[in-house]
Amino acid sequence: MSQSYPLFVKRDIDGFFGLFIDNLVQLLLILGICGGLCGMSGDNAFYLYRYIFPGAAVSILVGNLFFAWQAHRLAAKEGRSDVTALPYGINTPSLLVYVFFVLAPVYNQTGSVEAAWKMGLIACLGSGVIELLGSLFAERIRKYTPRAALLSTLAGIAIGFIAMSFTLQIFHRPLIAMVPLGLILLALFSHTRFPLGMPGGMVAVACGTIVAWILTAIAPNLSSPPAWLATNTLDPSAVSASFGTLGLYLPQFVGAEIWGLLSDVDAWLGYVSVIVPMGLFNIVGSLQNVESAEAGGDSFATAPSLAMNGIGTICAALFGSCFPTTIYIGHPGWKALGSRAGYSTLNGIVVTVLCCSGLIGLASSIIPMEAGVAIVLWIGIIIIAQAFQATPDNHAPAVAIGLFPAIAAWGATVMAGAFFSANGTTMQDLLTANASAEVNGFLIEGLISMERGYIFTCMILAALSACLIDRKFYAASVWAFIAAFGTFTGLMHSFQLQGNTIDYLLLFSEPAEGALVFSATGIGIGYLGIAVVCIIARSFRSGPDHVAPAHDSASSAEVSTDDESVFNDA
To answer: pTM for the full model?
Structure first.
């Protein structure tokens, strides 16, 4: 390796803690929801420790090592020492969707944990194949899509699902989390150096962990500890209990199990309506993250990056994991931390050790999640800022409109969770009685409709708006037609609702018995109307065909103006 680009730098420790916390959240989520909803607890917990976690380790290690190697290749090619590897790990949306719409339904129907696990393997494999095939044409999508469209989607996700979610955790357990938050902001906003040159992320996590255990030691000695103290303590018994899961769990090839179920087409065909949309979402999401990296100064080849996504996910399935992996959102945040390639390598190694030794429970019982979430919050902040800073100034309205569907998706997720927790009147009950039912002034039907396929909706609305800003009326009409196609096929806006469970309603698929159905035909027609308006606008436009984007030298965003581009006006 080049001496100018070492295997590891001190700032990789900060990046490691951020990426590790991100991956640890996913692993703990798997532990909790698979145990609670899919029967993988007690005697059946071995499906997690023997298959799913080791399989996840294979996919994460392979991906992290590849992206570290890719960063070294780019550094050598461009003669730079500041290249940051793409972050990589388990895909959270796919994790949740596959549990709720694949594993849990199979377990509830059959009562068999094994059947649920095998169906999860098929879903994971299918997603990997779709992602691998998608790498063949992803670069063309990226070429013809305005940067505002790609980055605004990530910013919307960062606002709701990263920044907001982790901010709530910080203020829920402030005694543990707020000092680490202050340390992270001190290190990264004001670039303050800590004694001995210690990385801010390491200082923050160590400080939060020490404070948590001090509070845990103090609370039992008080006759009546106040509630604000009790909510900031840890459970010492969880540490001792976690030793029961320790052991050596080497990855096992499960190709025979997958092939056995693949041969029974009728068993898995009904889940294609879940697998295909998630595979497509993963392609688009990864594409946006590669664009985000280029906007931050690191131009990685699109096809190999997305192909690794697919290969990593296929590896996960072949070695027992039900959950796809993906390029993570947040490359500019890790770059701002000063991380290079070492953080990716270190994350892959540590996660592999945890997954193959049963140490996941022990690590989570010792280190409070809140001690490290400030690092992930920082990542979210940088993503949001980049969406505006790395695009032309006059495309700011396009970035803004692209935020709305993702924020609506976050609101829909929170709303659905509240209905589940309330265990009373369901969303289906309310919408059946009144299709215009509201929650605190927000239309339930509108929130759910915006949530379905929101990654596509964010990108399309922002792209359409950017094209109109540049007076590319034909290009804008093409994006509107794409939106109409996505809507009519069910990839966007349409849904079926059973109780509080929201699912896609794809074209030609039969809705579940008793489900409330929302067909987004009207929205599709509306998109066609927008396309027609854009086409007509070409005949009475009064300005030049293209308005040069106004942006400063720091903005490297490009809007395709190639004469041969199908997205340019004639």
So the answer is: 0.74
As a whole number of angstroms, the distance between CA 408 and CA 463 comes to 18
Contact 115/48 with Cβ under 8 angstroms?
Answer: no
DSSP structure class, residue 210: H
Summarize pLDDT for 34-79 with one digit per residue, the tens: 988 899 988 898 999 999 999 999 999 999 999 999 999 999 999 9
User: What is the CB neighbour count within 10 angstroms for residue 39?
Assistant: 22
SS3 of residue 438 by DSSP:
strand
Task: Collapse the DSSP code of 440 into the 3-class scheme (helix H, G, I; strand E, B; otherwise coil) and give the result.
Answer: coil
3-state secondary structure of 540: helix
**Number of residues that make up the chain:** 570
φ and ψ at 107, to 5 degrees? -65, -40
Name every residue whose Cβ is closer than 8 Å to that of residue 453 and which is 6 or more positions away in sequence.
277, 281, 486, 491, 492, 493
> Token pair 């979430």 is at which residue?
373
HEC string of 505-534 equals CCCCCCCCCCCEEECCHHHHHHHHHHHHHH
By CB neighbour count within 10 A (0-12 exposed, 13-18 middle, 19+ buried), where does 1 fall? exposed
The contacts of residue 363 (CB under 8 Å, 6+ apart) are 24, 354
> Which residues are bridge partners to 88 per DSSP?
327
Alpha-carbon gap, residue 233 to 118, rounded angstroms: 38
The burial of 167, by beta-carbon neighbours within 10 Å (0-12 exposed, 13-18 middle, 19 or more buried), is given as middle
Cα angle for residues 114, 118, 122 (degrees, 5° grid): 170
pLDDT at 558: 41
Tokens 């730079």 sit on residue: 80
pLDDT in tens, 451-478: 998 888 999 999 999 999 999 999 999 9
pLDDT one-digit tens code per residue, 11-32 = 899 889 888 887 887 888 788 7
**Rg of the chain on CA atoms, in Å:** 24
Rounded to 5 degrees, φ, ψ at 495 are -160, 165
Unique residue bearing structure tokens 């049963």: 358
Question: How does pLDDT run across 498-550, given as a tens digit for each residue?
Answer: 888 888 888 888 888 888 999 999 999 999 999 999 999 987 755 554 544 44
Q: Angle at CA 274, nearest 5°, toward 291 and 404?
A: 45
Distance CA(287)–CA(216), nearest Å, equals 44
CA distances from 385 to 2, 217, 336, 339, 408 (A): 32, 40, 12, 19, 20
**Domain layout of the chain by residue ranges:** 12-156+242-364, 400-544
And the tokens for 87?
């972050």
Residues 295, 386 contacting (CB under 8 angstroms): yes
Indicate the residue type of 235: D
